[in-house]
């Protein structure tokens, strides 16, 4: 469904004219992706360069990520009849946070115990084909040079060709070569940093 709607060359014909995202995108699959702004212990941000063999945005710079898996939340089909919506909502919410940690571990090769709990920073939706993605901020206890060594044995390393550990200035320069939703993720990260800098420090 995603290939037939969002990835269709005529994807704009599926949109309904509306300011409301739910109404506008009601005829597109729009599966929710995810991405993580991972900060190393030496204050670098991790970026991947996507392989030329992937279906979406080959060769582009991206934050590590992918998408939540409904079946990992125990959802294999659209629920019918009487269901415990509170229980399902809890399982879906848990999978949102579990899945981004899983994606970082699989794509970069770092052990899960080196990652702090993900902090949800917002949802970005790219203009091209209206694909949405949830973004998180995660601190890693490892230094960037240690992570470079682990990356060579990452489970999903085939999805990317190179790992970059960059400063905020370098990231700003690379952002133009990122998919729109990841540019949005970077904008959300900058808003988070700005908000944290404005919090008064305890004396």
From TrEMBL:
Keyword Metal-binding (UniProt): yes
Keywords annotated in UniProt: Hydrolase, Magnesium, Metal-binding
GO molecular function: hydrolase activity; metal ion binding
Organism superkingdom: Eukaryota
InterPro entries: NUDIX_hydrolase-like_dom_sf, NUDIX_hydrolase_dom, NUDT22/NUDT9-like
Cofactor requirements of the protein: Mg(2+)
Domain annotation Nudix hydrolase: ranges: 29-194
Listed name of the protein: Nudix hydrolase domain-containing protein
Record organism: Citrus sinensis
